[in-house]
Amino acid sequence: MVMLIAEKNAIDGAKVLRSIGTVKATSAWHARGRAPLATDWRERMLRELVHRGEDVDADAIIDVDFVIDAVSRQDETGVALERMCATGIAVRLSNATAMGFRG
To answer: Are 5 and 64 in contact (CB under 8 A)?
Structure first.
């Protein structure tokens, strides 16, 4: 199966049949204001979104966004920590099979 991902709320050449729901993936905790340690953190989070989309039988994930998910208090850990979050909406496409999106 091929999972399509789009930062906008549509997939070119396909019609969204129905929304399944929001999917979410997070990076590891890292020092606040710095990039996550893994240089490929965005790709890792997108792969996790794909896995979550596959779990709910989605054809695509639309409206993908990256934000800071949470910040821990410095007095709890000794250093301010944060993690990044990727969110998107898992959807079914009305013409996915005809377009070769699903195997």
So the answer is: yes
